[in-house]
Design a protein that fits this description.
By secondary structure, this protein is mainly alpha-helical. The protein has one domain: Four Helix Bundle (Hemerythrin (Met), subunit A). The chain contains seven helices and two strands; from the N terminus they run αααααββαα. It has a two-stranded antiparallel sheet. β1 and β2 form a beta hairpin. α1 runs parallel beside α6, α3 runs parallel beside α4 and α3 runs antiparallel to α6. Pfam families: DUF1993 (PF09351). It comes from Massilia norwichensis. This is DUF1993 domain-containing protein.
Length: about 170
């Protein structure tokens, strides 16, 4: 039995984005309880050359919506990246979840053999199939940014663990 493109993407994005939204809620409560300025967490990085928490969440949602759109053969929705607080990040996640739920399963499945191009100019990457794009590019990038967001919060004392990251399915 093979794993469908839809099953390998949409439910995975839903699960991890749902847990990311819950983790952000815990982070906001942690900041309130400990009297920490929310920006201290939102702008926190694991290392100076890495994106801060805010950008990690934005990029994770970009990979989720972009992947589903590309597999579905539709235009990738553009977000302004204007979030400045936890509520804004949770709204972005909710908007992303609504978008990926709006793409028909059949459209995502049809992306298995579709050639996928991402980026432009020197950063342009081409994939011979949607399957290659999903398995070797989109999912690893998505997990990297979601995991890094988790790690930033954990490193900064937010009481979260593996169950929080994995969430429910």
């Amino acid at each position: 039995m093979s794993l469908s493109m839809y099953t390998a993407s949409v439910p995975v994005f839903r699960q991890i984005l749902g847990s990311l939204a819950a983790i952000l809620e815990k982070a906001e409560s942690h900041a309130d309880l400990k009297k920490i300025e929310p920006d201290a967490l939102l702008k926190a990085r694991l290392f100076p050359d890495m994106f801060p928490l805010l950008r990690q969440v934005q990029v994770a949602t970009d990979f989720a919506k972009g992947t589903v759109a590309r597999l579905g053969g539709i235009e990738v929705p553009r977000y302004e990246d204007a979030e400045t607080d936890f509520a804004g990040l949770r709204e972005r996640i909710a908007k992303t979840l609504a978008f990926i739920d709006s793409v028909p399963r059949e459209a995502v499945e049809a992306g298995e053999e579709r050639e996928i191009t991402v980026g432009s100019g020197d950063k342009q990457r081409q994939f011979s199939s949607g399957q290659t794009y999903l398995a070797h590019y989109a999912l690893p990038h998505f997990y990297f940014h979601a995991t890094t967001a988790y790690a930033i919060l954990r490193h900064n004392g937010v009481e979260i663990g593996k169950r929080d990251f994995i969430g429910s399915f």
